[in-house]
Fold these 4 entries.
Entry 1:
Amino acid sequence: MKKLLSIVVAMVFIMSAQGQTKMNFSLNRKLQNSSRLQDEIAVFVKGDVEKIKTLIQQLGGVFKYSAGDIAAVRMPLSAVPVLASKNYVSRIECNDMKLEKLCDTMTINNNVWPVHAGFPPLAQAYDGTGVVMGIIDEGIDLLHPDFRDINGNTRIKFLWDQKINNDPGGITPMPYGYGTEWNSVAINNGSASAHQDGPYGHGSLVSGIATGNGFAVNNYQGVAPGSDIIFVSPDLNVSDNVFLASLTDAIDYIFTKANAMGKPVVINISLGTYLGSHDGQDLQAQLIGGLISAQPGRSVVCAAGNAGIAKLHFGYNVPADTAFTWLNTSFGSPYCDGYVGIFGDTADMNSIEFSAGADDNVNYTYRGGTPFSTVPSLLGPPFSIDVFNGINRIGVVQGQATVFGSTFSLEYCIEPDTPNYLWRIMTRGNGRIDAWSFQFYQGTLPSSSVMPEIVKYIPPDTTETMVSSFSCRDEVITVGSYTNRGHYTDVHNTIQFYPAIAPPGKLSGFSSRGPTRDGRIKPDITASGENIAGTGYGPRVTALLNGPSDFMVAAGGRHIVDGGTSMASPIVAGTAALYLQKNPTHTYQQVKAAILNCAKTDSWTGNNLPNPVWGYGKVDAFATVAGCTIGINEPDKLNGTITLSPNPADENANVYYSLPGKKPSQKYFIRLSDVLGKNMIQVPLENTAGYVSFPVENLSQGIYFCSLYAGNVLVESKKLVVK
């Protein structure tokens, strides 16, 4: 093994350009740091999975799992060039993007309570029993009553804290090889005391909204209070590829545990990264998509992000004349002083020329830059270009251009020699690009009299501010936020009123916008995530009560009022759990279709849906579980189908029906009811097939349910929109 390792180390320095082009910029940069070559890192590999597995074991690494042709592995950094040299490997990625926290009346606003009550046409009440609720977040309050059963035992079946290694009270979960896992027995006997939530109690609040049972005080119950809990706590304080790799590990871990329990599972992720291609085509996103689609009974829900008013993006059709956008490199990110990622379809970016240069931020004079180059001419290993003003170097521009499938990417990492410049990203030619950075210049632009060239400036905007990577996958349900309530009673029994600028039902200003870079609708749905009460983490509650923000603690002292898409996401995750309790073998497509197709609309959402702000509208848990579009066939129901036309309807609605095997002694009828189950119209059916027509012009605009019954047995139900 030592001989092999020495050969591997030598290969790092003679690595072929072909091998470098298989790796993303982040991984190539790591290989340039000789002090890190013996580090073990997590990477995603695309190619022949069986051959990759064999080689990883030979190189002293660990093959963790795979989905399709993408594998998640751990391996020495020094061994990556060997992997990259193989013709059965097409792509290797790690990631330096940090995950960030995307941080009652909720059960009314999201129409959850009729599901808990088993309101007709449901045949029973649903609370998530028999479903696993997986939460990936900072931490969870193990002592909070909302996460304990009626006997005081924990509802958490497994807890994996990825931050704590070798804790004597737990075990290291395999094949992941890091962190500590505790089961419910260990949690009940106090062996998991090393685990804590973060200082703001983000994970406890998210978990309470998704699955809290309200046992503490005031019945602040979550959406799926009967579900089992599996919790994974990633480390949010490291700046390398551990983040997205460990997140994928967490998803695989939860799916594997739920599989062993024989239960369907929903995972909520109120974490995300804003950088990346925003098309869901990075290897981590593809692998997560593969894990979700691998078998029925799985769903993943995530927060869209809280950057609704942040200027993180620019996207434009590149003009023939030079256009530019500034980066402010005076404050560096953990990645580099000035980072921007530029993405586009290969057909759109093929002829565009790019350059990075600098302007004096006092006199706004151009000081120098890199040569203009196309992405095809830059494809290959990472580049590093010294930028001069005369004989004086003013900075270094590093980067890499890559092609993956039909997508080009160009990443710039600018290291200035002086902070007194604004660095510009320049384009010319013909095509379309999108770019994301935390360091786009936010200051006042000079006038054209001071800087005539400023007329060519492309400012950053607030579109496409949603988090990237897996959140942009079609397999994932991505959630935006609207205001939950206008007031609440705090711990001092004082009524706190929410600002009038955010009335209940209005889209939250912070809620991130879509669409994806390739034009798909995201977020998918919204829920009431702003000004929402949920489970309060003990230490945070104590800190709030002892400070000026004690009004954030709700009456009873065990819950806090907060907001974010982080809090909207678990509402939808809980809704998915209610749906899977009723339909445990349904696929992720069926879960997602039920939630999106049964969304409700109002004066805030408007009728122009779906769109990249609201998605398909506001989640409606009752309509989702009742089966507004997919149908709510229960086991052993009689056969029968209905079709609605027109839908939406404004004067008359026609219901076409078919009743194969209709029994003469059985009474069949069509019933029209509102969303609360109130019977509006009922028409008997005499034939085995045909249609009935009834007027709807006197009904209020909105959603109704047209249901086919055989006696008291519900056969099928579909949503009818009256306009």
Entry 2:
Amino acid sequence: MTSTAFNKRGAPPPRFNALRATPFGLAAPLRGAAFSVTRRDFLRTGGVVVVGFAVGGGWPRRSGAQPSPGTIAGRSLDPRDVDSFLAIQTDGSVTIYTSKVDVGTGLRIAMSQMAAEELGIPIDRITVVEGDTALTPDQGGTGGSTGIPRGAVEVRQAAATAREALLTLGAEHLKRAPADLTLDGGEVRPVSGGPGVAIATLVGGKRLSLRVNPKAPLKDPTRYAVVGKPLLRPDVPAKCTGQHTYVQDHTVPGMLHARVIRPPAIGATLVSVDESSVRNLPGVRVVRIESFLAVVADDEWAAVRAARTMKATWSEWSGLPGSEGLDRHVRQSAVERDEVLVNRGNPSRDRPDVKRLTATYWWPCQSHASIGPSCAIADFRAEGTTIWTATQGTHGMRASFSRVFGIPADKLRVIYLDGSGSYGGNGNDDVAADALLLSKTLARPVRVQWMRQDEHGWDPKGPPQLLDVGGGIDAQGRIVDWETQMWVPVTVPGGRPLLGVDAAAIPQPHGQSSGNISQNGDPPYAASSVRVVVHWLKQTPLRPSNLRAPGKIGNVFAVESFTDELAAAAGIDAVEFRVRGLTDPRALDVIKRAAAMIGWQSRPSPNPRPAGGTRLVGRGMAYARYKQAENYVAMAMDVEVDRSTGRILVRRVACAHDCGLVINPDGLRNQIEGSIVQTLSRALREEVTFDRSRVTSVDWASYPVLRFPEAPGVEVALIDRPTLPPFGAGEASTAPVAAALGNAVFDATGVRLRAVPFTPERVKA
């Protein structure tokens, strides 16, 4: 959560001036003039209509870029070089450089622990620089739970390479064999004891000039002193006391505040603007580029008032199907292509001993619903442009914005600052484009803060998913056939189109992607034949994006709910049914652990329901191996359903989690707990609604989320496997939540819920 709602930064009341754009910047004041600028003119000159109302003329000087932390001259950004990932300073401290960013996952402390372990230095001697394109190597964006298995593992390998070099240098200095030395406490020391030499003396302030050795030996896990310890996150105290600087709080000298005015319909174009409607607001300037409309001011509250007061005329548009009956629309939508993802075994034909079932599952459009709306600051300069943003992919943003805005990549710097939640591709990239568009136009640093209706109404959405599942079981309760058919939007290369850039009619690629949304559509259990087919849809009604654990939650919801349906049809206990179909010991471990934690009692049918009872209780189980290749997660859940209202109350959740090596158990538990609670909110409450023209769920009343009193007790068991590679844990525990919840409701009521969210109205129906 951001520590401020508005940053009211006062300025002297300005006098009225109007400024016009020229190829050389802003020209002399205009009086009552109106101009329109073509897209070609904007791209050639940065020209735009700017109607300003200011007292005291002149624009303050633009700010400089954020100062860089101490660096070593000539440090490489080549990800093959050790110097790209770490630097040993003259005081013996170590700076880690990574493009992976900590979006609340605890990545900073976990990565520091891994590096500290390999380098033998205290954890408090490590500083992390993250997501700054001028300082960090490009390890890709932060997503797909790759922060640890790619970002931190690469840093660890660089640290292991550095450790070998430091031992060699220490051996020369101490006249000892490297095998007789150890790296501990920031010194190379003899194993047998005696004086050592500080790493600062050996290389402090100098380049290591080493290639990362992928075979450099890692420290023996049995000797870990830092990894595996529940060290506290360094950012938490300031966040809890409101002192942490989020991107929403960041300022630069001479900064203007802006609000972008979006159309009343998603595809509408701007017809006319009545500048006089904001003339009485001090210091307000109106910016129009084609259908891009914004107001800027020295004072943020003035910009907010102007955005609410501005009168503009827009064209009509009604190209959406509406969210009512969206599942039917998805099934009837045009298909780009069909793809068979899994096809193994031979399906049975007309076997009389096989009991067959079919079911359809639905997952709706959902928002990222970040608590604090998106924000960014851009400072455009010919000699070098800087953007401060909460994007999860700073290097990707630099490449994209370089192409779209015609700024050489080496003159564009993107710096990550914490936002208030992202969960994938929310509005961060769009708001940064808004800020850069305005800064390039006005030759001033500009801060753009979205409002709540912007965030809910215009952030790209997690797309709808429709799944038909069918299968059969034989007389012994074994799965004979399984088929999943899914309807999801296709990925189109080119990147997600940016709202402001589109409105300004600036050419940009029009791709679309929702992430790897077709994974986990096949069952993890033994089956004679399995077939998974995805129907890739050409379009989706709302602009799609990767939303936390993209696709996997909906797919596991379908797969694990249908697994429960098969178990019930076979008259076999839900846990026993799963155990029968698995041989992987890690899978069996998490299922048995979660069942024991919840106190599972075997029964072959749903929980008996008391006649006339108003409060029904039930218990459910679900399991997933994330992406069928990473974490093992089993989840059991106790729920209570009010028969009279249809309200579901989750009372208790037990989760067993195996992600290989556990680096920081407290941080890992925090991630798992957060994933569970957020996904319960998505399963119980969240659904984007829209009519023929626009999104209608634009606030917390129309898009409700789970509240604190509704949060259940969550118990997490971590299965540590220190000799195995670590997997990221920002997503995996989301996958089985909705299925465990639905299975528990079935156990309580005998009613199978196959469409999310499980609202009271839907439960009663």
Entry 3:
Amino acid sequence: MKSIYLVSLLLLLNLAHSGQTQTFASADPDRIALYPLQNDYRNTLSLSGMWQFRKDSLEVGAKEGWQNGLKESRSIAVPGSWNEQFTDMRDYLGMVWYEKQSYVPSSWKGQRIFIRIGSANYAAKVWINGQPVGMHEGGHLPFAFEVSPYINWGAANRISIQIENHLKPSRVPTGNVQGGPFSNFPKSNYDFFPYAGLHRDVWLYSLPAVASIKDITVKPGFTGTTGSLEVAVATEGKATRGTITVTGNGKKYEAPIRIAGNAATATVSIPDVRLWSPEDPYLYQVEVTVGDNKTTLDRYTLETGVRTISTTSTQVLLNGKPVFLKGFGKHEDFPIFGRGAANPVIVKDFSLMKWAGANSFRTSHYPYDEEFMRMADREGFLVIDEIPAVGLYFHGDTTELAQRQVMVKQYINELIKRDKNHPSVVMWCVANEPFPREVSVTGGPGGREATPKSIELFQEMFSLVKQKDPTRLAVLVGVMGGPSEWVGMSDIICINRYYGWYTHAGDMNGAVKLLSMEMDGLHKKFNKPVMVSEFGADTYPGMHSDEPEMFTEEFQTNFIKAYLDVAATKDYVAGMHVWAFSDFKTGQGIIRFGGVNYKGVFTRDRKPKAAAFYLRSRWNKK
């Protein structure tokens, strides 16, 4: 354990080093538990929009005082990836600076003021009015800092954010790996573009100074027709009492709470409960108020659903009944926006997934924007929520290995802290396609043998997930030819398979025989449900042939049909996720024509290929 703490310290020192002596606080994961909310006790101010931007390729900005005002800057949109917005920065992953000036409303005076950054990829430092506030490593998840001491009242406030996205073997996801499985530029150790920038909304928000709600954790359950929500509340300040109110189906249910040590718990029963499911994604409103014996001091409201998730040896059970996960792996990726959050794209993606008949997706290969998760709750989608642990490996430099393990645990903590109240989230995924030293893709149920060290580290990840949230399933998604011992730790066996594409190319008869044999072997060995979490074929839109041929729309349709047909013959298969929902940007490489992965059943701008129509006809059958 001492070595982990030492590595954490080294990470912080590495982030702090940029030719300066300023001290930066590390982000507290507890600060991201509750999304900023406007109500009668809390305030929000969006900082998204146009910011000023400057490249810092020599990394001299902090030493030269850029936090005191950017010169020679240009405009950039937030959210958004800088790689898509500027013609001269597509492949640039070095240091940059963002700056925004904003007044803080005078009505907020006397409250605690915070800044919350939805995602800064990959490492960020924040200044307010030239004063160092905090730093955070890791993209795709939010971080927040209190900035009350730094605010200028009655004047504009300068927010300065320094970001860099250097690709390193010590980071998660990994990059610039010697001897890695990918040969591409930029040198990411994964098959999607390493977009950089402020990818999600930036907020200023305020909390009551006397007392406030810091965290709410809701655990649902039911017995017969009576539902229950166990609500744990964490507070700050001098609150001594409160009330939990659950509203739904035209009725209200209340439970008082007594706060001791800034914590309280109560269970609210819901007669004639309406269970959350893809067929009926019903959400209950949970309101928590806290205060003292005289008055209410803070209030927070969220939506959640009552549902359970479990498994047998052959099935995934939602609310005690079998459910089959049909859907996609996908990416947050769209022209011009890059990985930047775009609400119209979110709406479009859910519309197309419903059109195709899907009921689930995986957040491959990182957590998605919070609005995406709220949409999943409302639209009734089952989500496998994944941390950015793609491209992991367990050989080589032991210091780098320890650094990656620290980051993986940080991601698990942050992801569960952020998404634990979403009924749509039914599984946490701790890694996608970790690689052994050597990979054999020729098939068979065995694969390469797992090293004892890799087993130990994955056990740590799974134990942490179960400690943080024992109510959901935990999985690891295995690479083709990887050790079966890794995927065997999961609550369900999740495998990515491309027989007929990367191996047995074009030979679908041989491919499905191999797939069937391997699935049978995995189920026999572990006696758990099996899910093919990725399968697909690159397909150039509009390319056709009279006989199915690789890269044509006919081949993609036949490929997907063959895999689905195999799965339909096996009662232990609990889900099939097509890779991918839509085409997406990658680095440049010999196997990625135009720097795009064309395995989408929709194009990058969301036009359907023939396979999308096939899935619609198959998945929408009653």
Entry 4:
Amino acid sequence: MGRALAEVDSVIPIPRIAEVLKALGVVMLMPPQAEAVRRGLLSKNSNLVVVSPTGSGKSLVGYIAILKSVLEGLKGVYLVPLKSIAGEKFEELDVLCHEAGCKVCITTGDYDQPSEWLSECDVIVATYERFDSLLRLKPSWIGSVGTVVVDEVHNVGDPERGHVVELIVARALRRGFRVIGLGATVGNPEELAEWLNAELVYSNWRPVKLIEGYYSSRRKTIVFEDGREEVATEGLEVYLLKKALEENYQVLMFKHSRHYAEGLARQLASVSRERCDDLAEELLNLEIPRVEVDSLRYVISRCVAYHHAGLSLGTRKFVERSFRGRKLRAVTATPTLAAGVNLPARRVAVSIRRYEEGYVKSLSIAEYKQMAGRAGRPGLDPYGEVIISDARSSEEALRYIRSPPEPVTSVLKSERALRIHTLSLIASEEATDLGSLTELLKLTLAYRQLGEQLVKDVEKALRLLENMDMVLAGGTLRPTKLGKTVTSLYVDPLTAWMVLEHLKERPGRGLYDIYYLTLIALTPDFPRVRLGSLRSRELHSTLEILEEGEQIPLPGWADDYDVLRALKVGLILRDWVEEVKEDTIAEKYGIGVGDLVVIVDSAQWLLYASGVICGVEGLTDHARRLATLSKRVETGVREDALELVQVKWIGRARARKLIASGIKTLKDLANSSPERVAEICGMGVKQAEEAVEHAKELLFKTRSMLPS
């Protein structure tokens, strides 16, 4: 493959696409982009897999493929692993569509909704899980999709969500969609391309040269692959900061845990002679949790920051924006930053360990390569340098530097993945018997790697789904009403079964909220959010927190750790719906505000889904309780405030102020003067006018829905 840039006009065969690219300032194509065009990106409708380093322009390949579909009268879909990345891709595609005269939309939630409104969109940006749900629900517009771009296609090997990517691809192949896979750290790109029946563009070209090295703690020296050595007697990270200050560039330092990332940021701030008082002042004016402001203000004032998933979204965006704007000199981070955010720096220090479930584990080669790819800012740096900070020996460091990423292997073989997708294929009528189910599974990477063993495992999953009363098997495979509901709600069949098993023998009126909140935290669908130290000996003392008469579910399969973890989630959520401030919750339970957001979002959906499932099975008391609790978790309020928080500009704090002042219902608010509302809530009169008007609209809608 050539390593020189190519002019757009000399490579792009479709004039309209060339015009759009040039209007956006793209006049030259990078080598992987030009090679993709030569391999048929615009001249054929064949599938394509592009594997090249971070910053080599893979996203544009996907955008060009989508633009080709739009010009042919079809829709283009761009899939990403995270909501935060979806927002970034939406903004980029919005600029492209504005120039091309098309419409882009984004969808990342509402898993039980077919979203027919998306029929008006030419380009759709979605997370993996959202598009998987749409393929199950089969909205009327799904047949007009021409191209599906799977960004970070190497996530097909991710233990948690790889099976979702795999089934998306299998369904897309079955429907005849064009599939464009984009990846940076793939050890077996040829196998992925063969699975997708795709042309392969494989390149190690980078816009900025990468130099790799490691730190020898014994010699207090950085050893680079190109033969250079640098003495760092003060310790690696302090040396890197001082060097960056001297030579005016930025550094990114990955540590294996949040605790170490925050501690390192404070250490660096204490030796930094640079000041960013204006940035610290900006931090004070942001609408972010006070606990985060207090923790970050000092390090930010020294042009240093830390970044991890425990921070609120607003704080993470502030750090990212400040680093991209070259206002921060150094950022310390956990590996989650490398997976979700593109923040390049001249020098990157990488810990090849990760703290997970109470243990420190070694990273995979692929994870190291992902972080190493952040070294070097295109257009700003002549080269990028990555330094392994904690290798136990030179041999270990060189193994990470010189080895290719591990091969991507299917995770569809897991029991959880097979029961989820077997039910979804039957419920969506894509598989009506064992033969058609097997034929679709033959389009998966799992079948390619496991062969007939996959079919045997699917038959076992079928028997389990029969026992759960979700599938009627025989010559024909049919979903029960329960099975169809479960897959439309996008939950694991085992989650639904657990909820029903625990609730069907218990009267809804006899249970406290903590029972429901702990129960959904025990299900396999609840994410493994970081909850701090959990030890079995804490279980008894934690149980004593429960009020008299309260109970929690104690399934026979769960050990003390599972129960304690679920109970801690339940207590966090109970405080949340009792309107305890998020700062207080974070400090009380030792979690980050970002963790609280994940807990709340996950619980809201699982409570809603559990309520629908209970309704289908005739457990009406539980269905009602769960539906109400879902709304309370969504808004973070007691039940008496649910009416008021529907109103524009009225959140949990303002709703409580209104109730304390005697304005307790929509009717009360609709009949209140904007001046009084403004005074009570501490808002402007204009906002108060809009709130009162919205309350009147909601009240009218409520009355119009009542039977005459």
